[in-house]
Design a protein that fits this description.
The structure is a single chain. By secondary structure, this protein is α/β, with parallel strands linked by helices. It contains 9 helices and 7 strands, in the order βββααβαβαβαβαααα. The chain folds into 3 domains: 47 residues, no CATH class; 96 residues, Rossmann fold (3-Layer(aba) Sandwich), CATH 3.40.50.150; 69 residues. The protein is 41% helix and 11% strand. Helix 3 links the parallel strand 4 and strand 5. The termini are far apart.
């Protein structure tokens, strides 16, 4: 990637990870009437940073182009909606929330979570950049929703308006484990983090394992970073991939070198 730099550590990018050619934007669905129109395609070529090992794409489109009209609605998954209901009920009881409280969710989608607070008479506010999804939250569920990206400017404006929240949902796997399991969950997260760090250190510095083990450390690290801002492990395929990566890290023995046998016929030189 000539002239490009890592989006995390700003080191120069030059190592190709995988090139899948050209692709349209994800979550874009065209109408039958658009079949004869041009659809923009962008390079789906991932690079890996040689300094921090972050696998990344070059940014060709702005977040506004991707998220202003989005096709994914959280309420499509009945199991996820039920999980959100139980999650909200637990938070209401544990934090003793009531009509004088206020709950906000960043990336609130179609109101799948905030509707559970609203039913209990607790004021809510959603922040959802996708205008089509925010409209569904407002019109169908009565959830006050701002069609904006959450930013410092927006947070400052809400504070000046006196709209601070007692609870802010910005979901990730770690926060949910900690909230649902309490101190036991926090302890499990810390213990796992120590084990993962020591294992990856043994792989990269101690020379344990092979190339598949190193690949597993990069893949599992990417999933753990993603978990800071989302719930990747709720997806069965990602969970299975994560479990496989951890299995490779746990059994990081270097595969034995197989002896090769020379099967070529022997040649004899007779002198005399």
């Amino acid at each position: 990637m000539h002239g490009s730099r890592c989006r995390f550590c700003v080191a120069p990018l030059s190592s190709s990870f995988v090139d899948l050619g050209m692709s349209p934007l994800c979550q874009t669905h065209i109408e039958p009437s658009q079949l004869h129109e041009m659809e923009p395609f962008y390079p789906l070529h991932a690079y890996v940073c040689e300094q921090c090992f972050l696998v990344q794409l070059q940014e060709f489109v702005s977040p506004d182009q991707i998220f202003s009209e989005y096709a994914y609605f959280s309420s499509y998954s009945s199991s996820w909606v039920e999980h959100a209901r139980r999650y909200a009920e637990m938070a209401i009881e544990r934090l003793r929330l009531g009509p004088r409280s206020k709950v906000m969710e960043i990336a609130s989608n179609d109101g799948y979570l905030l509707q559970n607070y609203l039913r209990r008479g607790i004021p809510v506010l959603g922040v959802e950049p996708a205008s089509n999804i925010a409209e569904v939250a407002r019109e169908e569920r009565g959830i006050p929703t701002l069609s904006e990206f959450f930013s410092y400017a927006l947070a400052t404006g809400l504070r000046k308006q006196g709209r601070q929240a007692d609870v802010i949902h910005a979901h990730n796997d770690y926060a949910e484990i900690a909230l649902e399991l309490g101190l036991a969950g926090i302890a499990l997260i810390l213990l796992f983090g120590v084990w993962w760090f020591m294992t990856v250190r043994a792989v990269w510095i101690g020379g344990e394992g092979g190339p598949f083990t190193r690949a597993a450390s990069i893949a599992s690290g990417a999933i753990l970073v993603h978990s800071i801002v989302d719930f990747p492990l709720r997806t069965a395929a990602i969970s299975a991939c994560f479990a496989m990566c951890l299995a490779l890290l746990a059994d990081r023995r270097v595969p034995p070198q197989q002896e090769t046998t020379d099967l070529r016929p022997a040649r004899h030189l007779v002198i005399g």
